[in-house]
Amino acid sequence: MLTIKDLKASVENKEILKGLNLDIKPGEIHAIMGPNGAGKSTLGNVLAGRDDYEVTGGSAELEGKNLLDLDPEERARLGLFLAFQYPVEIPGVSNLEFLKASVDSVRAAQGKDALDSVSFLKLARAKCKLVDLDQSFLKRGVNEGFSGGEKKRNEIMQMMLLEPKLCILDETDSGLDIDALQVVAEGVNSLRDPNRSFIIVTHYQRLLDYIVPDFVHVLANGKIVKSGGKELALELEEKGYSWLEDAAENGAG
Amino acid sequence: MTDFHNGLLAVANTKSNAENELFSALNKSGSESFLQQEIPTRKTEAWKFTSLYNFTSNEEGYGRLAETHNAAGLDGITTIPALNAQRLVFVNGQYSEELSSNESVNNVVRFSQANEAQQAIIADNLGTAIEQEKHLFAALNNATTTDGVLVHVGKNEQLKTNIQITHITTAQAKPFTVPARLLIVLETGAQATVVEHFASNNDEQNCFVNAITEAKVGANAHLNHYRLQLMQEGSIQIGGVHVDLDRDANYDSFQLGLGAKIVRNDINVNHNVGGSHCELVGVYLPQNKQLIDFHSNIEHKIANCTTNEIFRGIMADKSKAVFNGRIHIHPDAQKTLAQLSNKNLLLSNDTTINTKPELEIYADDVRCAHGATIAQLDEQARFYLRSRGISSAEADVMLSFGFINELLENLKLDAVRDLIRPILAKRFGRDEELMKHLG
């Protein structure tokens, strides 16, 4: 599904990713954990194509296609989805208009016809219900005045509508109370599929109680310094990250 | 006294504007005031960024009325779809019975048709909200007015029918003036919605529309006022709105300006007695080489009044916009709440905006805020849309649309929103495909 080789990326000439390798097969859930500033969010943003990040080396392929050559919208149309850590508020554009534009674009890329307004509204309402968002959120401006939890649920709703191949959740759990966390986790679990993969970027082990990963990776100082099964997350919860960071420093030196 | 002054005043002496007793005093004082004021130049503070050269340099001058008033083929631009309104339509300044709706509401009448009681209302109010010595083109209008429209709503009367006043222009052999005057008088506790609407039949215009609106909003009265300027390109429109607010009066207004050869609006609101509220929302959307200028001036003369003013503009191509928002808080105007916001979005590198919020505060117990910004589209928002598969071009259109639509969402009249959205579509999308998800 996704193959990342020796990926290097900088922000404002500061190198953040320093040669990252990752291989994700269809149906797998990979958790990426690590201390603040390790490059966790950078990974998601680089894969989604944010301009602020400059890729200085390496490759990232989604089903054999080189992502790094593509515009953000082209990546989305190939089936990549990034649930934002900080979803953006866009007043004046209704959530429904936005969602329809998004779904139509992705469908068109897949050679499917646009849904008519009535069918789309029905679909969007159904997804709202699944993430426990009132239907009134469809009429409101995109994320406008939404609480932190509502924004994250809106992200998951978009993911459900777009049915992507690769879902990247960028600290979706940050700032969520336990109820919202469960809603998000249920949303993700409902989308689990042998042909769909997930990258769950998180700082804490908590989310992984609800979304059980196949692999856990520790990202420190721009590289993956340790990989393991779900039990690694528990070990990290207990020991923190510093022992791995030290190892990374030593390894680099 | 110059050729420019005399030329424009010539309108007052043309045949169809024969002297009328009701207006003779106003005409005389207007004429005197107009002659005393010099042609604004770059050195005139209020006209620093708006050049009148394209107006004053016209060799034929604008000092004549239109020769033809043909209503044929104008129905389409006359109506505002879905607006339930009593409609008065003027073509090149002359009333068109054909295009107007049957006058069923007696709250609205042309000055020339006014009955005795209405004439008394005109005599009592016309010109009283205007400081003509500060507004050259209001003085000109005072000098040349012999007809106009009166909207009068009596004590505690709530006018259910909206009033629409439309001015359409068509090109003439020679440049011409349309003196347009509207007087709105709401008595104590009255309510009304008035939509002013200016349009032209194509881009080949040579009119100068001198449109002045006066509103006298009585105690506890509520006026919803829409002023939609849809004339474009060759047109020149210079005028404004002058409002007097009585105790606890409410003035709720929305201004739309598309831009033309020259568009200049002076908006003056006077909080005269106390407890009144002014809501002033405006949108300007110049394109090509158009110019649009909004100069607002809110006078807080007395305590406990509130003003909320929001103007937003999107400038395309080589257009230019000027926004000057003055809020003047007098020494007696304690407990004033006033907010002013002006945001601008530039769609090209060749556009110009001159924006200046001006807060003058002479009272010590007030809360005032102002801000002006000039920006390009938000990159975070753009990336967010694109990361969902939306093309970069469609994302730009959605964001530009949203920037203005945020203000339209609060409009009370759906019909006005419906009128503006397709215009926005054309303006930013210039491609229906890119607007298909909006509106």
From TrEMBL, chain A:
Q: Which Pfam families match?
A: ABC_tran (PF00005)
Task: Cite the InterPro entries for this sequence.
Answer: AAA+_ATPase (IPR003593), ABC_transporter-like_ATP-bd (IPR003439), FeS-cluster_ATPase_SufC (IPR010230), P-loop_NTPase (IPR027417)
From what superkingdom does this record's organism come?
A: Bacteria
Could you list this entry's UniProt keywords, alphabetically sorted: ATP-binding, Nucleotide-binding
Q: Which PROSITE patterns does the entry link to?
A: ABC_TRANSPORTER_2
Positions of the ABC transporter domain: 2-246
Q: Which GO terms describe its molecular function?
A: ATP binding; ATP hydrolysis activity
What family is this?
Belongs to the ABC transporter superfamily. Ycf16 family.
- This chain belongs to the protein called Cysteine desulfurase activator ATPase
